UniProtKB/TrEMBL annotation:
SUPFAM superfamilies named in the record: RmlC-like cupins (SSF51182)
Domain Pirin N-terminal as annotated: residue spans: 11-119
Protein name: Pirin domain protein
Note accompanying the cofactor annotation: Binds 1 Fe cation per subunit.
């Protein structure tokens, strides 16, 4: 079963400095049909004005992933990390027993665009952690996150994997799935089909269950970039 989550149906909040679209219930946006998917709790598509950002605030018992699409994030946290996160890099923060952090647009003239993603951990507590890495823009599927950080991936406290999908030269790619697991696709750019009747555009998502094989077909001349979540 494949269920499309249209970008146009997402929750929306505009605070002036922040324009945010919510794939799942978040803040003042509540939809009982979209409370998350398996352990995936939040996908926020955020646009931040120059020099603006999220003041210091806290999290506990959540795995928080950021992917910058445009611009640079200036990050500070209570464990002593002071970092910049440029476009294309992934940041994974494990809140554990508690962490405070701020995230600002590092530029005073360029808009910041990034995805903020929350994943519920499979165990509570533990020391907070911070990881950051660039994985490039290779054609096909690239492993980004695994439970134990295998082969240079980011390590997460959950039975889940994240893959980056790039289709620039390829027009079709087939993924062998496990019908017992849950999959979620978030399309960042381009136009993609998952089945004869499922077409995705930028910002769309798709919940996938009870399927043994997924075929991605690129529908436009421009490249496609997506995130594929493999969840228990």
């Amino acid at each position: 079963m494949i269920q499309l989550r249209s970008a146009n149906d997402r929750g929306h909040a505009n605070f002036g400095w922040l324009n945010s679209y919510h794939s799942f219930s978040f803040g003042s946006y509540f939809d009982p049909q979209h409370m998350g998917f398996s352990h995936l709790r939040v996908i926020n598509d955020d646009t931040v004005r120059p020099s603006a950002g999220f003041e210091t605030h806290g999290h506990k018992d959540m795995e928080i992933l950021s992917l910058v699409l445009q611009g640079t994030i200036a990050h500070k946290d209570s464990t002593g990390n002071v970092e910049t996160l440029p476009a294309g890099e992934y940041q994974l923060m494990s809140a554990g027993t508690g962490i405070y952090h701020s995230e600002f647009n590092a530029s005073d003239n360029e808009t910041l665009k990034f995805l903020q993603i929350w994943i519920q951990p499979n165990r509570l507590g533990g020391d907070p952690g911070y990881q950051q890495k660039a994985f490039g823009e290779a054609e096909g599927l690239t492993n980004i996150i695994t439970p134990n950080g295998q082969d240079g991936t980011l390590a997460i406290k959950q039975d889940m994997r994240l893959h980056q999908l790039i289709m620039a030269e390829q027009t079709q790619l087939t993924w062998q799935a496990d019908a017992k697991r849950h999959y979620y696709i978030h399309l960042i750019e381009g136009e993609l089909s998952l089945a004869t009747d499922i077409t995705m555009k930028s910002g769309d998502g798709a919940k996938i269950q009870d399927i043994k094989q997924i075929t991605f077909t690129k529908l436009s001349q421009s490249r496609c970039k997506a995130l594929l979540f493999d969840l228990a």
